[in-house]
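During the reporting period, our protein records have gained a structure token line. One record among many is quoted in full directly below:
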Amino acid sequence: DMSMKELKNEMCELRKFIDGGPKPNMLNEDKYEHRDLEVIAHGYEKDKDAVDIERILSNLIKDMKIEDRVSKVHTFSDPSSIGVIRFNTVPSKFGFYKKLQDFTAKSKGGNTLDFENNKTLEEKTREKHLGYTKHLLIDREKVKPESVKIFWRHEYVEVDKVKVAWLDSEGQYQVAGIAQ
């Protein structure tokens, strides 16, 4: 687990990187090498035991008869609210999505699980920047939380239906209005 001080330092490094600075050491770590092979399962109740999440995913994999295509099932923390399935190959991952159409995965509490590809570091960095912008608008500019909305898929932030921060076509962060 990361302390608040370590998290702040990491956010500062990411901010410098987004603004064109050097690539932070955390982006060079080997632990990120398998993202293209991973699928994230979310929809679990908060703070579930990792063992429960892993069991549910392992049973789904067994029911789908794709055990030979999966190299690892895990969570990023314990307790957790997401699970991770790592496949042996990218085509195996795509095969999972195709087979998933015939299955419904549910959490122990009955929630339907959703699945998506694990994001690249660049995608995660962009999303952190959008989230940080929302935090600053609420914390420093005293904008009402319900007035700030992040459009993750289109990578921009609105305040009262006015776009105030976005990523342009080159991935550069742009701000306007209250976000400046």
In short: Helices lie at 4-18, 50-64, 90-100, 121-139. The mean pLDDT is 83. The beta strands are 38-42, 70-74, 82-87, 114-117, 148-151, 156-159, 162-167, 173-175.
